[in-house]
Write a structure and sequence with these properties.
Length: 378
């Protein structure tokens, strides 16, 4: 069974030769050590062996958002100014300013050369008035057509080694990311009517875009990210139903109506919201973090929800960088045993994230090797 067959057979809930193994964001295609961009951490020699291991041994899942072409002019373009500058340490700052009537919204991000992430220094929405302003901003009524040749090229390049997974935020993600966590929690908990207006604005664009991509690229695996912004302890479980199920369920239905597989991405403590996640009708869930990062054992999720969902994950990213390899092997074996125990649709061994520093620690490399050795031995 080749790696593409193994992944697709798992998604269909059928028997495979062994569980697939994914390194999540690492896929062996996007990590380019020859890219001279100063913010490309993969130029460091410590990454080379892991890139090769990912390319040659994992069941590759390449995450891709789908761009749109033939888009009409966006009314926000005339209202928005973006400026970037780099300081003496090589940190790149990007300032975004939106002027709408008498209101001004600003945000500031920072990108460090040795860290593969973008930090939000100042969020666009800082209070209730800002959120009301954002809701009133104009939005393009049309969005063009999906640009699919890039996806098809990536699938051709992958060949039998893996699949492309379409990646999309949900409305909650788009709204919550506009503000810091404290402001998000406060407004979501105390201003539900206003918060729904914001979610509806994002939903009015995201759902038809999802429909267009699902029709153009049927039968693919998708990842819907953002539900964790309504997970405990941030918000009560009933808020999850309000802010996630109402908007994500139609997205899931649209994806799966065309033969696709919708995977809900939700970090953290999920035990009290598992029923709500299942109610979306999704056919996959990740990353199912083990305690103490999460609050539910993989065996419980497999027993109660495994017939509906392929379960992805159960290895914590921090363990890859910090746990001695013999102890990490034990966690791998436990995940494999419980993730495949009893009846269930399928299990994919996967960490919750990946290292994002320029120099990959030797311990992390050893633990990635252990994942491959244990999956091949299983």
């Amino acid at each position: 069974m080749n790696r593409r067959e193994r992944l697709m057979t798992t998604l269909m809930g059928q028997i495979v030769d062994r569980p697939p193994v994914s390194f999540y964001e690492l896929n062996g295609m996007d990590e380019n050590p020859d890219d001279p961009d100063p913010y490309n951490i993969y130029t460091h020699p410590s990454w080379q062996s892991l890139i090769e291991l990912t390319r040659e041994k994992t069941d590759r899942i390449v995450m891709r958002s789908v761009p749109f072409i033939n888009q009409p002019s966006d009314p926000m373009d005339e209202l928005t100014t973006t400026n970037s500058y780099t300081n003496i340490e090589g940190c790149r700052f990007t300032c975004k300013t939106i002027r709408f009537g008498k209101m001004i919204l600003t945000s500031l991000t920072r990108r460090d050369p040795d860290v593969n992430t973008i930090w939000n220094i100042e969020h666009l929405i800082k209070n209730k008035v800002d959120l009301e302003t954002w809701i009133s901003l104009p939005q393009a009524e049309q969005f063009g057509t999906p640009d699919i040749p890039g996806i098809l090229r990536d699938e051709a390049q992958l060949g039998d080694s893996g699949i492309v997974m379409i990646d999309t935020p949900d409305p909650l993600c788009e709204v919550a990311m506009l503000m810091d966590m404290e402001t998000h929690i406060l407004l979501a908990a105390t201003e539900p009517a206003l918060f729904h207006k914001a979610l509806e604005k994002a939903y009015q664009r995201l759902l038809p875009q999802t429909e267009a991509v699902a029709r153009a690229l049927p039968g693919r695996l998708w990842r819907i990210y953002g539900p964790e912004f309504a997970s405990p302890p941030y918000l009560r479980p009933d808020f999850f139903k309000e802010y996630v199920n109402r908007y994500d369920t139609p997205m899931v239905e649209t994806i799966q109506r065309t033969g696709g597989y919708a995977r809900i991405h939700c970090h953290g403590k999920i035990k009290l919201i598992l029923d709500h996640i299942a109610a979306t009708g999704c056919s996959g869930l990740d990353p199912i973090e083990p305690p103490p990062q999460g609050d539910v054992e993989l065996g419980y999720v497999r027993q109660h929800y495994g017939e509906q969902m392929v379960l992805f994950g159960n290895l914590e990213a921090s363990d890859i960088e910090n746990l001695p390899t013999p102890a990490f092997r034990m966690k791998i074996r436990q995940a494999l045993q419980t993730g495949t125990q009893g009846e269930g649709r399928g299990f994919v061994l996967m960490p919750s994230s990946c290292p994002y520093g320029r120099q990959l620690p030797a311990l992390a490399m050893n633990n990635y090797v252990a994942m491959i050795e244990e999956i091949e031995r299983f």
